[in-house]
Design a protein that fits this description.
- The complex is a heterodimer of chains A (253) and B (491).
- Chain A contains 13 helices and no strands.
- Chain A starts with a helix and ends in an 11-residue tail after the last helix.
- With 253 residues, chain A is an all-alpha fold.
- The radius of gyration of chain A is 22 Å and the shape is globular.
- The longest helix of chain A has 29 residues.
- Chain A has a domain of 173 residues: Up-down Bundle (Fumarate Reductase Cytochrome B subunit).
- In chain A, helix 4 packs antiparallel against helix 6.
- Chain B is mainly alpha-helical and 491 residues long.
- Helices cover 49% and strands 4% of the residues of chain B.
- Chain B has 22 helices and seven strands.
- In chain B, helix 14 packs across helix 15.
- The chains are: A mainly alpha (253), B mainly alpha (491).
- Chains A and B meet through helix 1, helix 3, helix 4, helix 7 and helix 8 of A and helix 2, helix 3, helix 5, helix 6 and helix 7 of B.
- The complex binds iron/sulfur cluster (SF4) (2 copies).
- One iron/sulfur cluster (SF4) binds next to helix 5 of chain B.
Chain lengths: 253, 491
C-alpha cells in the first residue's frame, strides 16, 4: 500500500514536472521578442551570450553585483543542492558510476551547507524590511519546504538511518516498472513526500526561474541591432495569439 | 525635501510615502488623437485584462519576467525613486508585483485557485489607481535589471502597464500631448518650420559674433551628406543649445555637409515611454522619410538618451533596413561616435586649455548606458564620451563607480516624467545622483557635470539649484567640444 502510494506519487510528480515545465518553455518560445532589449553593455557575439548566461548560471554574476549576502546564501544553497543531487544519482545508476562513488563523502556536508544557505535566505526574508515587504506566504513556505527536504535528508544520514539498499531497490524498481517495497521509515517518507510536493509545484511557481533565466531577453540577446536587422516576428504569430484575447474577468474570490 | 548625506542611505520602508503623487491624466482630445479612448471606459476591467492578455502574447519578456522573479530582493535598494522616497511600491520588484499579482490572479493556476497563498489580487479600482501612480514613478531606466539574477527589467513592465492604462483611457497628459505635437508639427516643442528657421539664423549670427567664423546651421538642404536629428530642446533650451552649437562647429571644421529637417525636427520618441510600439514606429518613420526626401547618405543623432536607445536598438526593426544609406558608416550614428572618429583621425584642431576653467565629471544617461552601445565594442557608450571629454578638457574626474557606467543613476526625470506635476518625485529621485556629485565636488573641486541627454540636462537645470548647486553646472558634452575647437580666422 505504502509502496503503491509513493510509487504513483513519484510517477505523477515527475510527469507534472517534465510535461508542465516543457509546456511552459514551449509557450515562451512561441511568443515573439519584437525588439532588441539586452541590458547593455551586452555581448556582440553568440559565444559572448553563451558565456554571459554561463556566468549567470554558474556564478550568479548579476546577483553578486546586487546583494552580497543574498548572493552568498543563495549560491551556497544552489551549489550544495547540485552536489546533493549528484550524490543522489547513486540511487538511479546501476551499477553506480565511479565518479558518483567518488563524491559520496560530499553528500552530508553539502546537505548541511544547503540547509544553512536556506536558513540564511529565510532569515533575510524575515529580518530585512524591504524583503519582508515583497514576500508572499508562498515565498516563506517555499524556503520551509526546501529546508524540510534538506533537514530530513541530513537527518537520515546522521540520526535515523534508513535501509538504503532497499530504497535503491525501490527506485530501480520504479525505473524498470517492477515495483519493490519501500522502507517505511518516517524520515524517508517525509523526505519523499516533500520532494513530491516540490516537483508538483515546480511548473506553477517561481521555481520556474531555473529554466526561465535562459529565456530572458535582457540576458540572451546579442547586442548587434545595427549590424543585423531584427524583425518583430509579429506578422507570423499574431493570429495564433489572438485567441487568448477574448478573456472575460470573473470574480473568483 | 531630501538632504544629501555623505554616503547614500537606504531608507526604511515607508508605506504610501508617495501615494499622493501622480501625473495629470491626458485629456480626451489627446488620448483620441493617438487612438486611445478619451476617458476611463466603463468596462475597463475586461479591456485591461484583454490588453494584458494581448501583450503577454506579443512580448516574450513579459511572461518570463512575471514568472521568474524569486523575490530575492537584490533589486529592492537599486531604484533611485525608492532611495529618494522610501515608498516600498517604488522598489522595482514591488512595482512589478502590482502587475504580477493581477497576472497571477487571472492567468496562472496558482493564483486562480490559491490567491492568498501567492499574493494574487483582483484587478480592482484601487489596483488600477496604484498602477497609474507607480507606473508613473518609474523612469524606465533599467538600473534594476543590471542586478537581477534573471535580468528582469522593470522598465518593460512599466511600459506594459502604461500601455494598458492608455488603452482603458488613462493616458498620461505630458507624454501623450508631446506625441501629438510630433505628429502634427514635427517636434516635441511644437516649433513650426518658420520659427525653427529663425532660431537657426539667430544661432548663426550668434556664433559668428562669438568666434568670427560663419558656422552654418542648415535646414532642409537636399543633397547634404548628413541628416542631423536632435532633441528639439537643443534648439533653444539651456544648456542644450550650446551642444547644438558644438555639433555645428564640428561639422564645420570637419567639412561635412549636413542638414536639419523641419519635417523630422525631433530625435526624441516618447512612443517608447508609453510602451506603444505603433506610436514609436510612427514617430520614427518621419525620420526615415526625411532622410529619403533629403537624399542624405548618413543619419546622425544628437545628444539624447532615449532617442539614442530607440535609434540604435529599435530603428532597424521599426523603420529599417537602411540600405539607402552609406554602408561605410553605422546607421544610425551617434554624434559622439562621429566626433570621436574625427578626433581619432586628427580631423579636429582642439585646444583643451579652453576648458581650463572647469573640472568636469560625466553623468552616464540610463538609456545610453543600459539600452545601447557606441563604437564597435561593448561599453563604448562609456568610453567614447569620456575620451571625447578628456580630449577637450584637461581636468576630468569620474564619480563613484557604483554610480557610473551601467550602474549609473537616472537623473530623476527620465521615462516621460519630466513634467512639473511630478516635480516632487523628480527632486527626490535625483538624490542618488546628486549625492555622488557632491562627493566629487567636495573631494575634487568638480565644477561641471557633462551629459549627453536632453532630459538629463533639463532635469538637472531644474533640480541642481534645489540641492544648492549652481544651475549652470550641467553642460552638454558638445559644448565642451565646441569651446575647445580652434578656428583659423582665415576659414
Ligand atoms: S527601471 Fe529604473 S525607475 Fe524603473 S523600477 Fe527599475 S530602477 Fe526604478
Ligand atoms: S532582483 Fe529580480 S528576482 Fe530578485 S526580487 Fe528583484 S526582480 Fe525579483
Amino acid at each position: 500500500m505504502l509502496t503503491a502510494i509513493f510509487a504513483i506519487g513519484l510517477y505523477l510528480a515527475v510527469l507534472v514536472l517534465v510535461v508542465g515545465t516543457a509546456f511552459r518553455l514551449v509557450h515562451y518560445v512561441r511568443i515573439p521578442v519584437p525588439l532588441v532589449i539586452p541590458t547593455t553593455p551586452a555581448p556582440i557575439t553568440r559565444t559572448g551570450v553563451v558565456a554571459r548566461l554561463l556566468r549567470e548560471v554558474v556564478f550568479f554574476e548579476s546577483l553578486f553585483k546586487g546583494s552580497k549576502w543574498t548572493w552568498l546564501f543563495g549560491w551556497i544553497f544552489h551549489f550544495a543542492m547540485l552536489m546533493v543531487l549528484l550524490e543522489h544519482l547513486r540511487y538511479v545508476s546501476e551499477p553506480v558510476w565511479l565518479w558518483i562513488v567518488a563524491i559520496q563523502w560530499i553528500g552530508l556536508y553539502a546537505g548541511i551547507a544547503m540547509c544553512l544557505g536556506l536558513v540564511g535566505l529565510a532569515v533575510r526574508r524575515v529580518l530585512v524590511d524591504r524583503i519582508r515587504y515583497i514576500s508572499a506566504p508562498s515565498d516563506h513556505l517555499m524556503l520551509l519546504l526546501l529546508v524540510g527536504i534538506g533537514a530530513s535528508g541530513v537527518g537520515m544520514k546522521v540520526f535515523w538511518h534508513t535501509d538504503i539498499v532497499a530504497l535503491k531497490a525501490f527506485v530501480i524498481g520504479l525505473i524498470r516498472f517492477d515495483w519493490q517495497p519501500l522502507p517505511g521509515d518516517p524520515a524517508l517518507l517525509v523526505h519523499l513526500s516533500l520532494v513530491i510536493v516540490l516537483m508538483l509545484i515546480f511548473p506553477f511557481s517561481k521555481l520556474l526561474h531555473a529554466p526561465a533565466v535562459f529565456f530572458s531577453p535582457t540576458r540572451n540577446m546579442v547586442d548587434t541591432p545595427r549590424e543585423h536587422r531584427h524583425v518583430s516576428g509579429w506578422e507570423e504569430t499574431r493570429t495564433s495569439h489572438r485567441k487568448v484575447a477574448s478573456h472575460e474577468p470573473k470574480p473568483r474570490g | 525635501m531630501p538632504v544629501i548625506t555623505e554616503h547614500l542611505q537606504v531608507p526604511r520602508v515607508q508605506p504610501d510615502a508617495m501615494a499622493e503623487t501622480k501625473p495629470f491624466v491626458a485629456k480626451a482630445e489627446f488620448q483620441e488623437a493617438l487612438g486611445f479612448p478619451g476617458k476611463l471606459v466603463d468596462n475597463w476591467q475586461s479591456v485591461a485584462l484583454d490588453k494584458m492578455s494581448e501583450l503577454l502574447g506579443k512580448y516574450r519578456a513579459l511572461p518570463v519576467f512575471l514568472d521568474a522573479c524569486v523575490k530575492c530582493g537584490a533589486c529592492t535598494d537599486k531604484c533611485h525613486y525608492y532611495l529618494g522616497t522610501g515608498d516600498p511600491k517604488n522598489m522595482p520588484v514591488a512595482r512589478q508585483d502590482l502587475m504580477r499579482n493581477v497576472y497571477r490572479r487571472y492567468f496562472t493556476v496558482a493564483g486562480r485557485y490559491f490567491p492568498k497563498l501567492v499574493g494574487a489580487q483582483d484587478l480592482t479600482e484601487s489596483v488600477l489607481e496604484d498602477w497609474y501612480r507607480y507606473y508613473h514613478q518609474c523612469s524606465e531606466c533599467r538600473r534594476c535589471s543590471v542586478y537581477c539574477p534573471f535580468g528582469i527589467d522593470t522598465a518593460e513592465i512599466t511600459m506594459a502597464g502604461r500601455e494598458i492604462l492608455a488603452s482603458v483611457g488613462l493616458g498620461q497628459k505630458y507624454a501623450n500631448e508631446i506625441i501629438g505635437k510630433v505628429h502634427k508639427i514635427g517636434n516635441n516643442l511644437g516649433l513650426p518650420e518658420p520659427a525653427l528657421a529663425d532660431t537657426l539664423t539667430g544661432l548663426e549670427e550668434e556664433v559668428e559674433e562669438d568666434i568670427g567664423v560663419k558656422v552654418r546651421f542648415p535646414l532642409d538642404e537636399a543633397g547634404a551628406d548628413v541628416l542631423l536629428v536632435t532633441p528639439s530642446a537643443d534648439f533653444f533650451a539651456e544648456p542644450h543649445v550650446d551642444g547644438l552649437i558644438g555639433y555645428a562647429k564640428v561639422f564645420h571644421q570637419a567639412g561635412i555637409r549636413w542638414t536639419l529637417s523641419s519635417y523630422a525636427s525631433e530625435a526624441a520618441n516618447f512612443g517608447i515611454f508609453i510602451g506603444n510600439y505603433d506610436q514609436m514606429q510612427k514617430v520614427a518613420e518621419r525620420i526615415r522619410q526625411a532622410a529619403l526626401d533629403l537624399g542624405v547618405r548618413r543619419i546622425v543623432i544628437g545628444e539624447c538618451g532615449h532617442a539614442w536607445r530607440v535609434a540604435y536598438s529599435y530603428w532597424n526593426t521599426l523603420i529599417g533596413p537602411f540600405d539607402f544609406l552609406d554602408t561605410d558608416y553605422p546607421a544610425p550614428q551617434h554624434v559622439c561616435e562621429m566626433t570621436y572618429d574625427l578626433i581619432q583621425r586628427g580631423a579636429l584642431t582642439l585646444d583643451p586649455s579652453a576648458n581650463d576653467n572647469k573640472i568636469v565629471t560625466f553623468h552616464d544617461s540610463c538609456n545610453v548606458s543600459r539600452g545601447s552601445r557606441m563604437g564597435s565594442i561593448p561599453g563604448g557608450q562609456f568610453t567614447l564620451p569620456r575620451e571625447i571629454i578628456q580630449a577637450v578638457c584637461n581636468h576630468f574626474v569620474d564619480m563613484a563607480p557604483e554610480t557610473t557606467h551601467e550602474q549609473t543613476f537616472c537623473c530623476g526625470g527620465g521615462g516621460g516624467l519630466l513634467t512639473d506635476d511630478l516635480l516632487e518625485l523628480r527632486v527626490k529621485g535625483a538624490l542618488p545622483r546628486v549625492t555622488a556629485l557632491k562627493q566629487v565636488v567636495d573631494n575634487h573641486g568638480v565644477t561641471h557635470m557633462a551629459a549627453i541627454c536632453a532630459i538629463c540636462k533639463s532635469q538637472f537645470s531644474k533640480v541642481l539649484p534645489i540641492y544648492g548647486f549652481d544651475m549652470d553646472m550641467i553642460v552638454s558634452v558638445h559644448q565642451l567640444v565646441g569651446d575647445a575647437l580652434v578656428f583659423d580666422s582665415a576659414h
